[in-house]
Amino acid sequence: xxxxxxxxxxxxxxxxxxxxxxxxxxxxxxxxxxxxxxxxxxxxxxxxxxxxxxxxxxxxxxxxxxxxxxxxxxxxxxxxxxxxxxxxxxxxxxxxxxxxxxxxxxxxxxxxxxxxxxxxxxxxxxxxxxxxxxxxxxxxxxxxxxxxxxxxxxxxxxxxxxxxxxxxxxxxxxxxxxxxxxxxxxxxxxxxxxxxxxxxxxxxxxxxxxxxxxxxxxxxxxxxxxxxxxxxxxxxxxxxxxxxxxxxxxxxxxxxxxxxxxxxxxxxxxxxxxxxxxxxxxxxxxxxxxxxxxxxxxxxxxxxxxxxxxxxxxxxxxxxxxxxxxxx
Length: 328
Known about the structure:
Layout: E1 6-10, E2 15-19, E3 39-46, E4 51-58, E5 70-76, H1 87-94, E6 99-103, E7 106-109, E8 113-116, H2 121-135, E9 145-155, H3 157-166, E10 185-191, E11 212-217, H4 225-234, E12 240-245, H5 273-292, H6 296-309, E13 313-318
Parallel strand pairs: 5-6, 5-9, 9-10, 10-11, 11-12
Antiparallel strand pairs: 1-2, 2-13, 3-4, 4-6, 7-8, 12-13
């Protein structure tokens, strides 16, 4: 990391850039803890593609009183990474007030055969399934699903699929045939992800003002940090954020480092796995609260105060378009 310890504001507070570890304690008081202590889960089948999916949801004692309606968060897995490896991350994100769906997308991929690989078609498949879950008398989440709002989460190739979906693109490997982004997609937070074509060229992301957060491990040996920065620069519309987690490698989001079946990261993390998972999940959950639920406290945390409260991250963010003629 650069030794310069500073932050700079671009165009009168439009963009906030934080670098290094010198952080003041001037951030406004905000409770970044989860809203729900108890989270439950169950497994179902996505009818549209026959994929198994784990569903995590807040489980307060008064869950079925009609008080709650939780938006959906679809977690698109990394290639070759089983859904079970995201249970800790998904549970924490769910505790911020979301129903987190984690499918296993098993499909044929040229040159690889039948493997776990995410794809953009999962977006519409999960939206359809959650309509069923919300009305099914035997479903644990009956009557508590906000089926009108969907946030996307993703790891590695799953992040690429999510970025492609938000850009309303059908990119080879993560899309087959065609794709049309549903209006219910309102935000995306992706870890260890970038968007490139088959020629290794970065793809411009016309996100139609859908907020995007890129979460990136600083010692990621597979999705290299400079590509996250380039992808962030390629996101057309703010709000957007690049949140770097210090000492985390490519598998900071999974229950264990280098989970069985995945292509391992050659770099070892320098922070504990549970600390990395909690940090990534907390910033993901608060980003979704800011973007999906218009939570002002969460918005301020993501874009202006959280970096001072969390010594494990640095943040680059932009909340509004930079006016023409402005200077840095």
